[in-house]
Structure formats: structure tokens, C-alpha cells
Task: structure prediction
Amino acid sequence: MKVLVVGKGGREHALTWKLSQSPLVSKLYCAEGNAGIERIAKRVPIDPLNLEELASFAQKEGIDLTVIGPEAPLVAGLVDKLESKGLKVFGPNRRASQLEGSKVFAKEFMQRHGIPTAEFHTFDDPQKAKAFIRDFGMPIVIKADGLAGGKGVFVCKTYEEAMQAIDRLMVQGALEEAGKRVVIEEFLEGEEASYIVMLNGDRYAPLPTSQDHKRLLDGDRGPNTGGMGAYSPNPFIDEAVELTIRREVIEKVIKGLKEEGIEYRGFLYAGLMLTSKGPKVLEFNVRLGDPEAQPLLMRIKGDFLKTLLDFYEGKEVSIQQEERCALCVVLASRGYPEKPEDGKPIYGLEDAEREEDVILFHAGTETREGRFITKGGRVLNVCAWGSSLMEAREKAYRAVQKVSFEGMHYRKDIGLRGLKSAL
Ligand code: AMP
Ligand code: GLY
Result:
């Protein structure tokens, strides 16, 4: 069968890699892909937000299944568009994607259905927001309502930071419409965890647990990014915690969606804070995380395309997980996340790939005259398997040493928090 993956990052490279192993695939396409994806799938030069063109391509080519990686096309309604042409697609429709597309919608949904989350208020007037912040006290978290590619959340420790965030979003309009309305919420303390499932109506199938490292710098310092590394499994999610997450979050979401008549078919990602009072939802994503998808997909056994198809058809599936751990280190360009540089030649990819139990997933890469160059903020995901998190970490970092490009930077502490918890 013909399969189309939509997106161009590390997550989509990992998805394409996993799907390419299925004997059911006759042809694999990726729109728009990157230089790594190009080695295993045919690249289609259509922007993921060009819904009309993507739908005509899928129809003309006779695509049997489309899998969508990023949030923007989901929120824009790519699923609705493809389904209107009778095409099969794994991903939530536009209405369901509001769980990620609007923080206000997500918070109100959680409130309506008793899903544990931080206390919050929403504002569309900066003066009222500021007055509220004065009364509430510090620390406080300010979130743009709309999609912001990881740049719309401000964890403020001081009053000045909070005022600046309000001015940036609501007065200067730094994120345009996405920041005109904000959610202001209570600061939660604990360990962060990502819990991702596949959802289809009443059914869900949990994927391996993972943890992301969102801040730019070691020791969880610096600004938030899309994610600088991840690993799987997440040792903070033990059996008891997992049961609570399933009962208090996932199953309540399913019930809530049903009550509101919202159909949902696709991945659902709960970004959680494991607090002393139990897991609380920081956010929902309507897709796999990037880079969480990389280690997570590395730990799924068997034919993932077959699993997806069975699940799509409404069958019960159970996802078998490898015992081995997996870890991913993101190599980023100078200037990421604000203003990443492009066009730098990349060295040492083959050497890195020769390392044992290592796999590289490309993100912002292109080729120029047959050589790999950087194009974008997050450039490469250097990933490794290991019998323990420690071993996966050592192997991944050994491979990182082989790669270089001008301005390359990465976090040195991916996985360390997880290791500490295991001691
Ligand atoms: P979000 O996009 O809502 O997941 O927020 C991005 C990041 O900001 C999260 O991964 C957390 O590190 C942090 N964050 C968000 N909400 C809170 C909160 N209520 N308390 C503490 N940290 C938060
Ligand atoms: N790594 C977090 C995300 O994909 O949103």
C-alpha cells in the first residue's frame, strides 16, 4: 500500500523509518521531508499547510493511508480535507485538534470533565491580566492561547517577567492572534512526563512512556524550545502512576470527547506534571511529540503500519515494547530557538551512523551539491539503544562526538534526571 507521512522534522523521519519496515508498504512518500527522509521515502514538495494541494496529490497518487506529524496542518483541518475526498488518514480532525490549537479550549474542556490541571484564568484584556497577576503572586505561568511552536509559554518567577510577558503577547502582539488571549495559571512543581496514546473513539492504546527536555540549556535553564532531547521509558511513570494517568486523564478525555460529540482518531499526547497531589495536565498535543517520538518509536516492536491500520479499523491492538531503553540528543543550530542559522555544512554523519546501536534522524537538513547542510533550528537527532538508560546515553553521546557543523550546540545532560531517579 501507498503511505504518505506529512511533516519534515525528526519525528517524521522516525515515523517514516518505522513505517518503512512494514512489508505492507509498496511506496512511501513524505511531504515535505528532509535530506534524511529522502533516503527512505519519496519527497513530495508540498507545504504541510497547503491542504488543497496535499489532498489532490493524495487522491491522484492513490494514497492508502496518510499519517500527519505536526500540529499546524491538524489544527488547520488537513484531516477534514482528506476525509472529504474519501481518503484514509490517521490524525484528529480540526474540531478535535482544538485540544492543542487553543489552550483556553483545552483548559475549559479539562474543567468541564474533571481532568486534573493547574488552576487558571483566561484574559483578553492586558490591564485585567496584570491586575490579576498582582493579586495572585509569584511564580505564575502565562500561556498564549493559540499555537506558538513552543514559544508561547512563560514561566515567570518575578513580577517584572510576568508584566513583560503580558506586554509581549497582548500589547506588542509578538505572536499575533495566537497571543491576544492568554491563560494565566498556577505554577506546578514536580517531574514532567509525556504520556502518549493512540485514540480511536472509545479505544486507546498506550505507547511507550517518554520524557522530553524542553529547556535550551543544561540543568533546565534558558528558554523553552520544541525539545532538546528525550528518552524512553520514563522511570518516573511507574505502574501506579500510569494507572492514575489512564484513569484520571486519558479515560476522562475519552468520556469528555464523547459527551461533547467530538470524534477523535489519532495520537493524543498528555504533557504532565507529576505533582505531590498526583499527575496534572500541563497541555495536550494532538500528535506525537518531537523529539519524544524518536526514542518512543525505537522501542515499539513489530509492524507499526499493521498496528495503525488495525487500530484505525477499530480493532483492539496492544503495542509490544522493547526491553531496551532509547535516548535522543538534539543537535541544534546557533541561534535556535530565536533565529537559527542555515546553510552550514554537516560533517561526520557516516561516522556517527557506524557506531553500534545508533541511529540518526534528520530534522533541519538539506543537501547541496551532494553534501548535507543545515536548514533550521533543530538539525539532527542522534539516538541510541541501550540495555539501560545509562548505556543508551553513553552510546548516543559517543556518536554525537563524531558530528559537527558550525555553531552546533546540544545539551549534555539528556537522561540524567531519569538516571538519578533510578539510583
Ligand atoms: P506547555 O506548552 O503548556 O506544556 O508548556 C511548556 C512548558 O512550560 C512545560 O513543559 C513546562 O516545563 C512549563 N509549564 C507549563 N505549565 C506549567 C505550570 N503550570 N507549572 C510549571 N511549569 C509549567
Ligand atoms: N517535545 C514537545 C512537543 O513536541 O511538543
About this structure: The domain at 119-186 is CATH 3.30.1490.20 (Dna Ligase; domain 1). The chain has 14 helices and 22 strands. The pocket of adenosine monophosphate (ligand 1) is lined by residues 118, 141, 143, 153, 155, 185-188, 192, 214, 224, 271, 282-283 (CB under 6 Å). Residues 92 and 265 are 5 Å apart (CA to CA).
